[in-house]
Amino acid sequence: NAKEAARAAIIHNLKSPSNAKFHQNEIIKNLGDGTFEYVETVEATNSFGGTIAQNATAKVKWNGGDPSELQNWSVLDIQFVER
Predict the structure, then answer these.
(1) Mean pLDDT of the chain
(2) Secondary structure (3-state) at 70
(3) Closest Cα partner for 81 from 58, 62, 61?
(4) Is this model's pTM higher than 0.70 or not?
Protein backbone atom coordinates (compact mmCIF):
# COMPACT_ATOMS: atom_id res chain seq x y z
CA ASN A 1 0.00 0.00 0.00
CA ALA A 2 2.93 2.35 0.65
CA LYS A 3 4.17 1.44 -2.82
CA GLU A 4 0.86 2.40 -4.44
CA ALA A 5 0.68 5.69 -2.52
CA ALA A 6 4.27 6.57 -3.48
CA ARG A 7 3.79 5.62 -7.14
CA ALA A 8 0.62 7.76 -7.30
CA ALA A 9 2.62 10.72 -5.93
CA ILE A 10 5.41 10.15 -8.46
CA ILE A 11 2.98 9.90 -11.38
CA HIS A 12 1.20 13.07 -10.20
CA ASN A 13 4.51 14.97 -10.39
CA LEU A 14 5.51 13.92 -13.94
CA LYS A 15 5.05 16.15 -17.00
CA SER A 16 3.56 13.25 -19.04
CA PRO A 17 2.24 10.68 -16.59
CA SER A 18 0.33 8.69 -19.21
CA ASN A 19 3.50 7.17 -20.68
CA ALA A 20 5.46 6.59 -17.45
CA LYS A 21 7.25 3.25 -17.16
CA PHE A 22 8.50 1.95 -13.83
CA HIS A 23 11.60 -0.26 -14.00
CA GLN A 24 10.39 -2.65 -11.26
CA ASN A 25 13.60 -2.12 -9.27
CA GLU A 26 11.90 -0.59 -6.25
CA ILE A 27 13.28 -0.37 -2.75
CA ILE A 28 10.83 0.23 0.08
CA LYS A 29 12.10 1.18 3.52
CA ASN A 30 9.93 1.28 6.62
CA LEU A 31 11.15 4.38 8.48
CA GLY A 32 8.84 3.74 11.45
CA ASP A 33 5.77 5.55 12.71
CA GLY A 34 3.82 4.72 9.53
CA THR A 35 6.38 6.44 7.29
CA PHE A 36 7.90 4.74 4.26
CA GLU A 37 10.54 5.69 1.69
CA TYR A 38 10.04 4.36 -1.83
CA VAL A 39 12.82 4.52 -4.45
CA GLU A 40 12.45 3.39 -8.07
CA THR A 41 13.62 4.27 -11.56
CA VAL A 42 10.93 5.73 -13.80
CA GLU A 43 11.06 6.66 -17.49
CA ALA A 44 8.85 9.45 -18.72
CA THR A 45 8.65 12.15 -21.35
CA ASN A 46 10.20 15.45 -20.30
CA SER A 47 9.05 18.94 -21.27
CA PHE A 48 11.23 18.80 -24.43
CA GLY A 49 9.50 15.65 -25.70
CA GLY A 50 12.42 13.32 -24.96
CA THR A 51 12.28 10.25 -22.77
CA ILE A 52 14.50 10.27 -19.71
CA ALA A 53 15.10 7.84 -16.87
CA GLN A 54 15.05 9.29 -13.37
CA ASN A 55 15.52 7.88 -9.91
CA ALA A 56 12.39 8.87 -8.00
CA THR A 57 12.25 8.93 -4.21
CA ALA A 58 8.98 9.45 -2.37
CA LYS A 59 8.39 9.52 1.37
CA VAL A 60 4.81 8.75 2.34
CA LYS A 61 3.03 8.47 5.68
CA TRP A 62 0.00 6.39 6.52
CA ASN A 63 -2.45 8.52 8.50
CA GLY A 64 -4.64 5.68 9.75
CA GLY A 65 -7.77 4.10 8.38
CA ASP A 66 -7.78 1.66 5.48
CA PRO A 67 -4.20 1.57 4.08
CA SER A 68 -5.51 0.52 0.66
CA GLU A 69 -7.26 3.91 0.29
CA LEU A 70 -4.90 6.53 -1.19
CA GLN A 71 -6.60 9.38 0.68
CA ASN A 72 -5.28 7.86 3.93
CA TRP A 73 -1.68 8.59 2.90
CA SER A 74 0.27 11.87 2.95
CA VAL A 75 3.23 12.69 0.73
CA LEU A 76 6.04 14.07 2.89
CA ASP A 77 8.70 14.50 0.20
CA ILE A 78 9.34 13.65 -3.43
CA GLN A 79 12.54 14.00 -5.42
CA PHE A 80 13.69 13.18 -8.93
CA VAL A 81 17.34 12.73 -9.92
CA GLU A 82 18.29 12.18 -13.54
CA ARG A 83 20.28 9.00 -14.12
Answers:
(1) 94
(2) helix
(3) 58
(4) yes
